[in-house]
Amino acid sequence: MDKLFELQTFQQLARITGETVRELQFLANSMDRNVSVVLEPKKQGGLRKICKPSFRLKNLQRSINQNILQVVPLPTFLHGAVKGKSTKAFAQEHIGMPFVLTVDIKDFYPSIHYSRIFVIFCETGCSNTIARLLTKLCTFDGCLAQGFPTSSSLANLTLAKMAHRFDGIEKQHKIKIGSFQDDLIISGGYRIPRLFSLFKKVLQQEGFLLHLGEKKKEMSRDGRQETVGYVINHKVNVPKEYYRNLRKTIHLCKVKGIEVVAGEVPVEKFRRSLIGRIQYVAGVNPTRGMKLLADFKTIE
Fold first, then answer.
1. Do 288 and 281 form a contact (C-beta atoms < 8 A)?
2. What is the DSSP string of 217-266?
3. Cβ-count burial of 161 within 10 angstroms (0-12 exposed, 13-18 middle, 19+ buried)?
């Protein structure tokens, strides 16, 4: 990584973040008092630790993210939390491939430890003292924290270290590799299953383990190929079941009333969720999206 900054002193860091030196040092030394931890259930079972920064800490982390982390150029295989990119653009790169394999990284954020973040800040041009301060401000309990504004960018910069190795694999075997944070995809010819052990070895050497079993999906063009919620056999589209279930939910709202269908979920929150799902469909299929929106507008 080329050095982009010369952040050697607290005063320089204060200028680039828009904070005072005193505020930077205070927040870095009082993380326990400025972060609240909430445990949320995962869809697949177990609990996910969400770290919620205080208002002051969150504002500082946003500034670090905008003025330092997002300035660092990223390799093209990264898509998640990257300006100008989206899940749709990520999926589009793998349309019509003979074979697609998807898998995700196990315990992604907890796998990215304090020491790796310290190295990233050093490589951007920070002195050891400034890198240590920034690392304290951007980690919690010794690793990346889900809920910090800086975490997605730091995760990308960690994955970026594999770019040269992925480039070599892509060129040698004529395949395509992509990442949307912890969601990984390999697409190309039918040799991909045999190349998976090489791919897994690279990730293990970089300190990551993969979810295997049901989480690992091997999809040929004879069946449905799907990634990040999109079907990609011939074009980017939403799964038929998703569209049908959404249409059914809107119909039930019209017949029974949105309050009944929402159940324990606050009505306005449920309504926003429906709008978000309609926009998701409209993003790849405007005709269907317009039909769903027209139906939605008739809900009383």
1. yes
2. EEEETTS--EETTEE-SSS-B--HHHHHHHHHHHHHHHHH-HHHHHTTS-
3. middle
24, 16 Cβ separation under 8 angstroms: no
* Dmax (CA) of the chain: 64
Per-residue pLDDT of the chain (300 residues; tens, 9 = 90+): 556 778 999 999 999 999 999 999 999 999 999 999 998 887 777 788 999 999 999 999 999 999 999 999 999 999 999 988 999 999 999 999 999 999 999 999 999 999 999 999 999 999 999 999 999 999 999 999 999 999 999 999 999 999 999 999 999 999 999 999 999 999 999 999 999 999 999 999 999 999 888 789 999 999 999 999 999 999 999 999 999 999 999 999 999 999 999 998 999 999 999 999 999 999 999 999 999 999 999 987
Burial of 76 (0-12, 13-18, 19+ CB in 10 A): exposed
Euclidean distance between CA atoms 168 and 84, whole angstroms? 26
Residue 185 contacts residue 232 (beta carbons within 8 Å) = no
Pairing of strands 99-105, 217-220: antiparallel
CA-nearest of 191, 190, 212 to 200 is: 212
CA distances to 56, 92, 154, 231, 282 from 288, rounded to whole Å, are 43, 19, 37, 15, 7
3-class DSSP assignment, residue 183:
strand
| Residue pair 122/8 in contact by the 8 Å Cβ criterion | no
